[in-house]
Structure formats: C-alpha cells, structure tokens
Amino acid sequence: MTAGIEEDRVGRVIGTEPATSTEFRVILEADSYLQLDDLVVVATQIPKAGEVRIYGVVTEIASKHEGARFESDMELIKEGSLPAELARSATVQTMRVDPEIWVAPDSGEPVFRVTGEARDKALYADEMTRRLPVGFARDGQPLWVDLDFFDGRKGGHISISGVSGVATKTSFALSFLRSLTAHPEVLGEGASNLRVLVFNVKQEDLLWLDRPNTGLQEDDAEKWRALGIAPEPFDSVSFWGPPREGGELIADTDSRTKGVSSFSWTPREFVERGLLRFLFTETGDYRNQLTFVEERVRSQLIRNAEPVAGDEGAVSIEGQVVRSLSDLIGVIGEHLDPEDGSDPDSTWTGRVAGGTASAFMRRLYAAESRMRRLIRPDGKRVDRTAEAVTVVDLHKLHDFAQRFVVGAILDEVYAEKEATGQRLPLQVVLLDELNKYAPREGHSPIKETLIDIAQRGRSLGIILIGAQQTASRVTPELNENASIRVTGRLDAAEAERAEYGWMLASTRARARLFKPGTMVLFQPGIPAPLVFTFPFPPWATRPEEAGGEGDPFKGLA
C-alpha cells in the first residue's frame, strides 16, 4: 500500500457481486474485524488516471457460513461433519474519492482501516480550515465540526432532535458551546465578544453551568483534555430569572438565589417596542382576527405614548399614566369599544365584530394574571453583554408568559443586529422545545422572528441552536436552513419522517436504540452522517452535583 495509509489491513473487496461508486462490500480476514462506523480506505488503479483512493464508512456487518443450505446445517457444521467456512463481511458507504474520479474499487483489492493522515482524508478534516472538536467517533478519536458551516461563512445554525430525556439534546448543545468558548483560536475573529443566550425551560438544571460537577470521573476529565478542553465549567456566565410576585425585584428561583438577577420590562418599553404582539402568539389568533385588532391597538399605543416626567418606567397614554400591565389593559379597554351613540370609527380599532373585540379583551385579562410581574415601572432588561453566556430561566412561568419572554428577547436581539448590519460580534441563541415556538402549522410573531433568524440571521451573526423532540413538528424553514444536524435517540415512527432523509437507512434503524450521549452528526462538508459520543459534562446539571472551589478537577488542564 502506498504512503499515507497505515498497514492495518482488514480484508478485500468482494468479487462475487458488483462494487459501485457509492457502495461496496468487504470480506474480512479471519484475524481482523470491522464494526459499524469504522472508517476504511481502498486504493485501486484506474487506466490513464493512476491510483485512486476510495474512503468509506462501515454501515452494516454480516456473517454467514458458506456451504450451508438449510438452517439445520448449523448443528452439522459445528460437529464438523459438514464442511463450511465462516465468512464475515462489511458493507461500506463511499465518503470520499481522492482524486475525485468517481469509480468503483476493483474486486480483490485490499481494504485498510484508516488512521492518521488517511483518517483526516476520510473525514475531510484536511479541508476544514476551522475544525472544532465536538466528540469522539467510533474509533475513539476526535470528531470535528467545520465552523464555516456554523458561524455564517458558508452556512449557519444547528438543529438537534431526539426523544426527551434520552437524546441528551441540551447536554450536547452545551458541550458544543463549551468547546466553542474553549477554542477561540479555531473560531477566529468571531471569538472576540462572542455572546451566547440560553433559554432554560426545564427545571433549574442550567443555573449551575459555572459550578463544577462532583460526579465527574478522571476518565471523563481525560476525554475533555483529549478534545483540547480543560474539564471545567463555564467561567463567564450570568443568570436571570423572572421576578417573584410582590414588590422587590428578586428572581423567582428555588435551588439557587445567589448570583441570579431578575428581569422584567417597563410599561414604557412595552409600549414603545410594540411588545403587545407577543401576547398573541397562538396560531389560532390569526384565524380569529385577533392579530388585526392587536395591530391597530399597538399602533395607537405607540402614537399616543408620552414619557412621564420623573418616572422613566411609566408612560402616559392620552393623559392616563400607565405603571403596570393592569393599567395598560384598562386604558385599552376604554378605547376598544365605543360608548353608546358614538361613532365606531372613532375607536382605536374602528369597526370590528363585537365578538372579536371581546375575545381580544379576554386574552388581555388572561395575560394580566399570568405575567403582571413581568411588566413593572422598575423593570430591568436582561443584560446580554456582561458575560459570555447568559442563561434566562423560564421554567416557572406560565406557557403564555414563556412565549412572551422568548419573543421579546429574540426581537430585541434581531433588532440590534439588524440596526448594525454587521456579522460580528456573533450572537448564538440556544432554544429548546423549538416546536412550541415555531410549529409546523400556523403563524405567530415568534415564529416569524425565528424564520427571519433562520433565513437572514447568519448574515447578521445570529446563530440559532434549536432543539426539539420531533423535527417533523417544526416549521420547515428552520430545518431547511440548519447546516448542521444532530440527532439522538428517535421514536421509531419519527425516524421514518422525511425530515431525517439525510440519515442512512442503517443509521435510522440504530437511532431508535441510541444510548444517552450517543448521537449522529451531519454537516455539508461530509457526505455521510457519522455516529459519535461526547463526554460527561464537567459542569453541574442539578443542585446536588454542584461542587465548590475545592473540586478535585477544577483548574486541571
């Protein structure tokens, strides 16, 4: 074998059936083996072109006795009374041809397991100018993501799918972010002032990213070092939670209170930024014409809003001072329905059906009880610039209020980046339960904002890492614009949906059996999905795991 391919021969190309330019089979030698996801290479001589190397990934393994005709022959073969030979074979999916002359390997050519330079060739790592380690392939060696397809240079966004609680979607997303922040030399100019926004929607697990995990074992720590990352938690994190009911701005969190700031919005900001639209985020609102009423009311609020001297958080609407959501709803109610004998055209909404106006007010009254604590004269917006990672905790809020917070913050992020028109500094957004905010059917302000981010965000430096249990329930615009796709364990029915067409048939079947921490990765630079694992997190994922400064792995490089 020529230089650059290690002498680890595992078999030869089978000659009893045709090999093609996309797939071939290998008969394994008696003292060798291949397993799923192993990488191999075969060199073949092409007339007038010279040597061509064909790199591939193992997609299936088979074993049979040659000479057996019936199932009952197995007993005779084992006794030695019936001659037969055990034949083990592997099916290989072609990943790369070098040089790019797409031909089939010749029958009988020796097949080698790739290592070293040949492995880099098989994974296109030699063409990745900025490769970020995200885990380990089946051979135990690092697997990389080409950041050109993440940060907007050639593509952007990541879509992560899988069964809740088993697919470890959030764990991988955080592992990816930890690698991203730990390798500024790989990210390049985008590493300067990189900001990450994380929405926490499940319990308070993400309120401990800055604390070491006491369950981290030395072999796990060694895996992080193998990826070039110190086995430490995130070192620059700010935490934000909604305020408690009552007067003071104290974050409504249980397991952790120290170091958690409270966020809210002032009535003035609510009116001037037109945040009223994020109270109407259900897809049925469009069908019921509520959004028509909302648009009219929102424009009237903005038109009639005036600042209040000495009270920066309050706003005056036609002489009425608004210091709370309740005050604002009262003002809207007075202008929504005409008084007896008045001209309907003189109202804020003009001529609308009485039922629509009533439905609009019912929505506002429901909103008042669910999110009144988020609108207050001393409101404090989330500061996304203080630390590299900002965690916004939503899990204690009603679903209605969660939608408002996500919509309002994403709208702020998008407006700021659109105003500058610059891709840098990068703003990464991690949002779980994506199907709730951008469902496949219907329309909503949040969904439209997320679609804008998916379609135009990468040019503005807004990168979305979206996680969902089922990609089939997310609007296609988000899936189609995600350059990098990652999937953990899938439900059997979900695995057959068209959204997972990028997976090989064998990979789809295996995805139903993945263990936590095992995932499959697809990126445009590699024409085949690859199964990989990522190490146990060095940051705490729940209160009982949170260690102090004396943690044995803290500070280990």
Key words describing this protein structure:
alpha/beta; Elongation Factor Tu (Ef-tu), domain 3; Rossmann fold; ten-stranded mixed sheet; six-stranded antiparallel barrel
Description:
- The structure is a single chain.
- With 557 residues, the chain is of the alpha/beta class.
- It has three domains: 9-124, Elongation Factor Tu (Ef-tu), domain 3 (Beta Barrel); 147-254 and 384-542, P-loop containing nucleotide triphosphate hydrolases (Rossmann fold); 267-374, no CATH class.
- Helix content is 28%, strand content 23%.
- The chain contains 16 helices and 21 strands.
- The strands form four sheets. The protein has a ten-stranded mixed sheet with strand order 12-11-16-10-17-18-9-19-20-21. Strands 1-2-5-4-3-6 form a six-stranded antiparallel β-barrel.
- It starts with 8 loop residues before the first strand and ends in a 24-residue tail after the last strand.
